[in-house]
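Form 12-C: Joint structure prediction
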Amino acid sequence: MSRLNVSLPGLEMKNPIMPASGCFGFGREFANLYDLNILGAIMIKATTVEPRFGNPTPRVTETPGGMLNAIGLQNPGMEKVIGEELPWLSQFDVPIIANVAGKTIEDYETVAKEISKVDNVKALELNISCPNVKQGGITFGTVPEVAKEVTERVKAVSEVPVYVKLSPNVTDIKEMAKAVEAGGADGITLINTLTGMRIDLNTGKPIIANVTGGLSGPAVKPVALRMVYEVSQTVDIPIIGMGGIQSAEDVLEFYYAGASAVAVGTANFVDPFVCPNIIRDLEKLLDQYQINHITDIIGRSWA
Amino acid sequence: MVAVEKMVVTEQIEIAKNIFKLVLKGDLVVKVTAPGQFVNLKVTESLDPILPRPISIADLNKENHKMAIIYRIEGRGTELLSYKKIGDEVTIIGPLGNGFPIQDMKSGQKALIVGGGIGTPPLLELSKQLALRGVEVTHVLGFQTKEAVILQQELSEYGKTYVATEDGTEGTKGFVTDVIDQYELEFDRLYTCGPTPMLKALEAKFPEKEVYLSLEERMACGIGACYACVKETCKKDDELGYRKICSDGPVFRAGEVVL
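Section 2 - Result
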């Protein structure tokens, strides 16, 4: 009997570890390195109605313990993702969470309606938190009423459960969580990146061509944990936690904070084998802390 | 097949001002398939900097499981790398990317190899392998000044080697293109790596010839997953519209991507 299997709306998972959207492409690069069947789920790269090239380069830079990115939702567009990437991913026995983005609410509806019909797409992740695009993205994720409306309208057309990915760039994350729950969200994923910047001393200009980028990596983990802790005690829907996870210990910390599953992002760029390594280490860690099943510890840190 | 391996430092020497040659030993070396491939190096096991550094493979010795990389101190990452001592371990992800195409070059054909500054190192292994195939190699290397000249002697072992410096302190005063004109150098194929203005000049100078360019860009993963290092394609009707330098490149035929 597995001690790592997890059931969430739409998702029957062997374990609670999944690569985060935007950090795993559509899986092809990593399939050359290891068997993707070991993953709990895969959150694919954000998909928009139209193909997008993304932002000019440089698109990444660093800060101690973290990286800044402004990729700009580069993706081949809905038609290609549905016609090529998802069928290719169907060779793996792994539920796919499709990250959906757009410039308008109608864009979100269009992608959600079509992509949720694909067999291996078991849930949607509504991206209302990308800080690196001029239209859409985070503009839907900072005002509770707007976030609620997008959620409602996507829920109305989606054939699978809808998770909403929240931005940490808000005054009160609890209000955002309550709004999307009221809008019918089946779950919440958090956190997306924190908006930041770096400046090149030689040129005196921002290093990232887009000026600002999203901060991710271990540097944001305490912020992510605090938000998982707050949100999980505010809403009744499950949370997939993410933000700087790079070890099995980090996974336990997110569970204690109140997460029901976790996603691994930036760490995939630092060590492409990080997901299999975490899955391997997690069971040993349960022994060390005398935990019978991973779900037993959700929210253990709550007062 | 990409591997992650802790390789051992067997040599670290400063070959020019702020330019170092680092020799690493490990099994990963046997997986290298072409000159011009690169590796991603974790310069520290701590989190600052968090991302690995992409650096090209300059020299390969599969029998001894050794490879050399040559890098210039540009920032914190490469500075930390320069502190590595013999016996230290360095975590390496690689080999990455597609190297220079050489299989179709035949004995007696002429290759012109053009290096600019710190772009020169991957051309060393390239030249070695071309020479082994009996290809007649000629090198043109461009640097800012005499102090920055690297690999002139090493490359001379495989073929005639010309140097240009911008300030004229070594070789021809001017650019690599001036050397090519001055000596009326001819070739069946041109391979190059160096600063973008140099690559652009070579691309413009030889529109009808076979020219292969090795590019660089800030990267995160190095395996094609993060989409940090994309370049637009020159053909507007290209199905993708872009190429990833790390996994589609870093070597491209001139005219494939917008420099």
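Section 3 - Comments
The interface with chain B takes residues 22-25, 28-30, 32-33, 45, 51, 53-54, 57-62, 64-67, 69, 71, 74, 76, 217-219, 266, 268-273 of chain A (CB under 8 Å). The mean pLDDT of chain A is 96.
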